[in-house]
Amino acid sequence: MQLRFLNSGKRNGSGEAGLTLVELIVTVAILAILASAAVPIARFQVKREKEKMLRYDLWQMRSAIDAYKDDADKGAFQTKVDSYNYPPDLQTLVDGVDVQGHKLRFLRRIPVDPMTGNTDWGMRSMQDDPTSDSWGGQNVFDVYTKSQGTALDGTKYSDW
Question: How far is the first Cα of the chain from the last one, in angstroms, to the nearest whole number?
């Protein structure tokens, strides 16, 4: 197959105009350079979307923890004395608590961590050190990802 363009100049003795092999190689090389520049951009876009999902999931769980604590502080339901009115675990936010004969739920489900691909989140209790990597188990005061990766802005995901 030969590509033809309207051209007033003649390329060969038969009067047909077309692309030479050199022109075709140059065109393919330019397209390869442009495609190789698009790959890192696409990779950053995927990472950016995962970071966006991570921020949303952390916000959603932290909001549920805060709502649980607010309701417990108002006396809507009873909690353990040493829990400081925080939930005992994330599953409690999904399962809900009984309030006057009906279930009060705070989360539909535990989100999947986009960085690790599972629902195993790091947790901190009120009694834990703020920089601790281990959970004391008394309550859930905060959540974080267990990913050791670094974000596009240079921060560690686990510090979010």
Answer: 57
Quote the CA–CA distance of 67 and 73 in Å, as a whole number.
10
User: Is 29 a domain residue?
Assistant: no
Task: Average the pLDDT over 61-82 and give the result.
Answer: 94
Summarised one tens digit per residue, pLDDT across range 35-48 is: 888 888 888 899 99
Lookup: tokens for 104 = 């009060």
In a domain, 43, yes or no: no
Q: How many CA atoms lie within 13 A of 37 on its CB side?
A: 6
Q: Is residue 45 part of a domain?
A: no
Q: State the pTM of this model.
A: 0.74
Domain with 94, as residue range(s), is 50-150
Give a yes or no: residue 60 inside a domain.
yes
Count CB atoms within 10 A of the CB of residue 15. Answer: 7
Quickly state the pLDDT bin for 12 (edges 50, 70, 90): low
Number of domains in the chain: 1
Q: For residues 145 and 63, give the distance between their C-alpha atoms in angstroms, rounded to a whole number.
A: 16
